[in-house]
TrEMBL record:
One of its GO terms (molecular function) is NAD+ kinase activity. Belongs to the NAD kinase family. Keywords: ATP-binding, Kinase, NAD, NADP, Nucleotide-binding, Transferase. The keyword NAD applies. InterPro entries: ATP-NAD_kinase_N, ATP-NAD_kinase_PpnK-typ_C, NAD/diacylglycerol_kinase_sf, NADK. It comes from the Eukaryota. This is ATP-NAD kinase. One of its GO terms (biological process) is NADP+ biosynthetic process. It comes from Galerina marginata (strain CBS 339.88). HAMAP family: NAD_kinase. The keyword Nucleotide-binding applies.
Length: 385
C-alpha cells in the first residue's frame, strides 16, 4: 500500500545500466542518493562485540568515590551522613565527591563531568532512575564501577540495601567484589543532509533504551529500519524502541518485547502499537548497526526519549544510528557480600551457588512475579524469597 522511498531508489539502482554497481553493492546507490548516513564504519562488516568478563573483580581499591542520590528526603540525608562518616573513619585518605547541586552534603567535594579528578567508584542511593542518571554523567567515555543501594524502592538495578553499605564497601576495598557489565547504546543523530547534528555533540550513551514515538501527533510514524545497511522494513506505528538487555525489563517489556538476560550482548527492537499485526519484536547481535530514518512521507515527526529523558524531535528525512557502546556500565553484584554462613545456607536450598550471578533470576521472580498464577498477594509474598 505504501511503497517506501528506499524500495523505489533500490529499483532504480537495479535498473541502472552499470552491471558492476548492480552486482557488487546496490546499497551504494542508496548512499549516493543521500538516503543513509555514513557512520565511518562498514555496514556489511560486523563490529567486534564488547567482551564481557564473567565475574570480573575490582582489583584496586578506590581513591575517589562519587555519590549520586535522588532528592534528599530525610532517609537519604541520614544514609549519606552515615556513609560519609563510615568512609572517612574506615578508609582515611579516600576522597568523596558529589555532583554539583544545591544539596551537596557536608564532607563531600564538588564534582562535575569536566572535573579533572578520576572517579574510581560511583555510589548511588535511590531507585533505578538514579543509576540511569549516574550513567548519563559519563556519557562521553568509560563508566566507573557502580555500587547501587536501594532506598526503599524496588528495582532491577538495586542489588544492595542501604543497611549493607559497610559490607558492600568492604568487598570493594578488599578486592572481592564482582561486577556485571551492563551494555549501553551509542546513538548518533543525522539531519536530512546526512550531517551529524552539531547540537548533539558526541554520541549519546543510554543504558535502557532509545524510543522514537509520535508524541502528541494524532498520526502514526513512518520509519524505515535498516540493519547493517540492509532495509529491514517500513514501520508504520506509534513508534519504535531499541533497548539493551537491561532495558528489556523496562519500556520494551511494556510494549510486548522479550526479557533478555543482562549478561547477553544484544539489541532488542520492539514496535509500539504497530499497524501490522505481523510486526513482532526482534533481537539482534550486539555487532549490528540499526538505522532508523523518518520516512519522507511520514505524517508525524518522531519525538526522541532516551532513558526517560526527552532530547529533540526527528523530522522526515532525519535519522538516528544505534549500535552497542564500547563503554558498558560495570554494576557490582549482590553476591559480592555473601558470607560463609550464607554459603552453608545456600548449599541446603534451591538456586544458584554462591558467587554465581543469580540476582536476575531472583528479580524476575520477586519483582515481575514471573509466571505467577492467579493466587492471592499474601501467598505470593511468601512463595518466592
Amino acid at each position: 500500500m505504501y511503497a517506501p522511498t528506499m524500495f523505489a531508489a533500490l529499483r532504480r539502482c537495479l535498473a541502472s545500466p552499470q552491471p558492476q554497481l548492480r552486482l557488487s553493492s546496490p546499497l551504494r546507490c542508496l548512499h549516493r542518493r543521500n538516503l543513509l548516513p555514513r557512520t565511518g564504519r562498514s555496514f556489511t562488516t560486523a563490529l567486534p562485540p564488547h567482551t564481557i568478563p564473567a565475574g570480573q573483580k575490582i582489583e584496586n581499591p578506590p581513591k575517589n568515590i562519587l555519590i549520586v542520590n535522588k532528592l534528599r528526603t530525610q532517609p537519604v540525608i541520614l544514609a549519606i551522613a552515615a556513609f560519609l562518616e563510615h568512609v572517612h573513619h574506615t578508609y582515611p585518605g579516600v576522597r568523596v565527591f558529589h555532583e554539583d547541586r544545591d544539596d551537596i552534603p557536608h564532607g563531600a567535594e564538588i564534582w562535575r563531568p569536566t572535573s579533572p579528578e578520576k572517579i574510581d567508584l560511583v555510589v548511588t542511593l535511590g531507585g533505578d532512575g538514579t543509576i540511569l542518571h549516574a550513567s548519563s554523567l559519563f556519557s562521553a567515555g568509560a563508566v566507573p564501577p557502580v555500587l547501587s543501594f536501594s532506598m526503599g524502592t524496588l528495582g532491577f538495578l538495586l542489588p544492595f540495601h542501604i543497611d549493607d553499605f559497610d559490607k558492600a564497601l568492604e568487598s570493594v576495598f578488599t578486592g572481592t567484589a564482582t561486577v556485571l557489565h551492563r551494555m549501553r547504546l551509542a546513538c548518533t543523530f543525522y539531519d536530512k543532509d546526512l550531517a551529524k547534528k552539531s547540537k548533539d555533540g558526541d554520541d549519546w550513551q543510554v543504558m535502557n533504551e532509545i524510543a522514537l514515538h509520535r508524541g502528541s501527533s494524532p498520526h502514526l510514524n513512518t520509519i524505515d529500519i535498516f540493519v547493517d545497511g540492509q532495509h529491514l522494513t517500513e514501520a508504520v506505528s506509534d513508534g519504535l524502541i531499541v533497548s539493551t538487555p537491561t532495558g528489556s525489563t523496562a519500556y520494551s517489556l511494556s510494549a510486548g518485547g522479550p526479557i533478555v538476560h543482562p549478561s547477553l550482548s544484544a539489541l532488542v527492537l520492539t514496535p509500539i502499537c504497530p499497524r501490522s499485526l505481523s510486526f513482532r519484536p526482534l533481537v539482534f547481535p550486539s555487532s549490528s548497526i540499526i538505522t532508523l530514518r523518518i520516512g519522507d512521507r511520514s505524517r508525524a515527526p518522531a519525538g526522541i526519549s532516551m532513558d526517560g529523558r526527552s532530547s529533540h524531535v526527528l523530522s522526515p528525512g532525519e535519522s538516528v544510528v544505534v549500535q552497542a557502546s564500547p563503554f558498558p556500565v560495570p554494576c557490582i553484584n549482590r553476591s559480592s557480600i555473601i558470607t560463609s554462613s550464607d554459603v552453608e545456607h545456600m548449599r541446603h536450598s534451591e538456586g544458584a551457588g554462591p558467587g554465581k550471578e543469580d540476582d536476575w533470576v531472583r528479580d524476575i521472580n520477586n519483582l515481575l512475579q514471573y509466571n505467577a498464577t492467579f493466587r492471592s498477594k499474601a501467598l505470593l509474598r511468601h512463595s518466592r524469597t
